[in-house]
Amino acid sequence: MRILDRQRYWAFAKAYVTCYVSFVGLWIVLDAFSNVDEFTKRTEGFQQLVSAMGQYYLIRQAEYFDRLGGVISMMAAIFTVTWMQRGNEQLAMLAAGISTNRIIRPVVVSSVLVSFLSVANQESVIPRFAEDLQRNHADDGAQAVKVQTKPEDHYGVILSGVEADRARRTILKRFTVTIPSKFFGSIRTIEGPEAVYIPETARRVPLRGGWLVRAARISPALPDEEMADPDGLVVKVADQKGFPPPVGEAAATAGDAVFVRTSASFDMMIRKTGWFQYGTLGDLFRGLADPNTDRYDRADIEMSIHSRVLRPFLALTLMFMTLPLVLGGFGRNMFINLGLALGNSALFYGTNIVCLNLGSAGVLPPVQAAWIPMFVFGLLAVHRWGQIRT
């Protein structure tokens, strides 16, 4: 590696770290002061408060890097080139017969590395902390959460609830299962004060792949012979030995229980809007193929798959759109260069957001909504890059 290349890499790294710390630091300060009351709800004393805030914002560095990586990479490239021009380094290298494309090669390589580092962050780091990233400021992970969805599984069974205990994977207060008429001749409703999900992978449990509804009430009532088959949709459980213990009071959960087979898992019941943003690409494909996925989420998931694949290339497109403006003669005025960069970013991300919203609303097919910004700005980037003559 040549000395000038090392200087460009070092200048890019300094610019990137400076921009990242400035943007993220300012956001953390504003967000922390706005939500300090929320943190105090789950802490006692100043030491616990600082620890909770530190852990909260440390985990979110993966999300901040994912959201800001492309913009900061473009700004770091702008600053690197501008500093080079202010010191007349570019003029000296051009006089020595070095082309502009060769001069800025380290900047391009650095941007490519940052783009693919963002991919690794999305596929490896963010999924590992997906549950933490979806918590609000007052959520310590132990409190009950609202059951926000009512998924319909591939049997046509609809489940609903009030709130959930994440640690014990249990729905509390009220759990309702609505079974369509194709199974028992008429619509049946099963209600209970508590239900625990038993996954297929569970061991030493009498029944798996469904929900154990405690103190269940079936309306209209089902004959016992209809619930005698251990492989049936609804199984009566007189002896709960081997199942997880109840969470609520013994008096409230006493009585016979009912096991309902369904593919709607506990995670699906507490799944929040936009959950797919925190999953891997494999999770998105599985969510798209899962019959329990809400039909309104399918278009967003399909767009997310295409956007995930295009993300590093879109970030590079933004940089290739902007660098030729800086290299085209505006030169040493850093404020003009930064203004041009921000204007390009606003146009780029504004168009991207509009296309994604049109795809989410069904106006555009998801594939077109995800690829239109790439085609439009990719052509613009190629045109601008071709105008670099030296």
Describe this structure in words.
The chain is an alpha+beta fold. The chain is 56% helix and 12% strand. It has helices at residues 3-34, 36-40, 46-59, 61-86, 89-95, 100-103, 105-128, 130-133, 181-184, 266-269, 281-289, 295-330, 334-360, 366-386, and strands spanning 145-146, 158-165, 170-179, 188-198, 210-214, 217-219, 234-237, 257-261. Strands 1, 2, 3, 4, 5, 6, 7 and 8 form an eight-stranded antiparallel beta sheet that branches.
Structure characteristics:
8-stranded antiparallel β-sheet, 8 strands, alpha+beta, 390 residues, elongated, 14 helices
Envelope shape: elongated
Q: Give the proportion of residues in helices.
A: 55-70%
Radius of gyration: 28 Å
Describe the sheet with the most strands: 8 strands, antiparallel
Distance between the termini: 22 Å
- Report the mean per-residue pLDDT as an integer: 82
Order of H and E elements: HHHHHHHHEEEHEEEEEHHHHH
SSE layout and pairing:
Layout (H helix, E strand, L loop, with lengths): L2 H32 L1 H5 L5 H14 L1 H26 L2 H7 L4 H4 L1 H24 L1 H4 L11 E2 L11 E8 L4 E10 L1 H4 L3 E11 L11 E5 L2 E3 L14 E4 L19 E5 L4 H4 L11 H9 L5 H36 L3 H27 L5 H21 L4
Antiparallel strand pairs: 1-2, 2-3, 3-4, 4-5, 4-6, 5-8, 7-8
Helix pairs in contact: 1-4, 1-7, 4-7, 4-12, 4-13, 7-12, 11-12, 12-13, 12-14, 13-14
